[in-house]
Amino acid sequence: MGRVCREIFEDAVDSCNSIRCTSFTNCDNIRCNSFRNCKWWNVPCHIARAACVVAAAVARAACWVARAACVVAAEVARIACIAAAGIALAACELVNIVLDVIGFIIELILSIPIIGGIIRTIINWVTEIIWRIVGLVDFVASLVGIRPRKKMYFGVIVPPVTPIASDADIQRQVDAVIDIYDQTCNIDMIFTGICHTKVAPPETPLNIACDAGGFFNDWWLVGSYFEFASATCKFTDSFRRVIGLGAEIIVFIVQDVTPSATTNGCSFGSTHNYVVVEAQSTDQEFVAAHEIGHACWLPHDGDPNNLMNDITPFTNPTLTNLQISLVRWSKHCVYF
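RE: above sequence
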């Protein structure tokens, strides 16, 4: 949750820094432009010219004084604005630390095998349905082409097992996620980083079955592991994951996704806040983007060029209008 505080603070500071004195910028242009062609014998004209020059000099000096006062006032206002934003940030961070601690405690409970897994599944689906209902107008607007910029957070957790994908191969998947959703959905995919967790998985090799067995295994030790690793590795998103809105999608790197040799990623949709991918150098670079699509309710698509084809395209994948609207409608996709 704290990331929202920092984003708001940064926007506020940008606004504060835009406070500038934009007045009295043409003081040097104040000149006496009258009575320039006085004849030598026209004494009144010369007197008027002298008075005009003096008046212009006085006005110019007054302008400079006003300019200095304006600059000082603007700087004081800018500093006060930044100080107020800092105070608001501290208050916001304090509130969010409390909320994330509460979320962390809840996640520890949800990491208990069986009972925690069942409750976790129920919470994920309830929050998904609630936020879909809340965002129904936004979904309809997206269908007709009204798509203001939205944002979605995602991060990567790498378990301490070998062999495992390298950070370079993971970054390849990350870059593809950012590019495809930016270009097709007008979504700013904000990457929160790669976390190399010290929490060891319950079994090695870390193989995940993308079938009914894998779904129900999420209620047992592996699912508990993913929940606990998320809570400890992505603490600042704890409360968001509990309430669902704007929850970060976590990409877990695993050693193998089954049942087939060509399966290199898996998602169980709204049941989980995470997806799993192998992220090997030989995999298509859009595997993580494909699984994130599943997490946002996108089913497989028969078009070989579509991101959601069961064989992920190697280059330039597409999304349909309905798919774009479904992704933007997800509880993970927010305006703030």
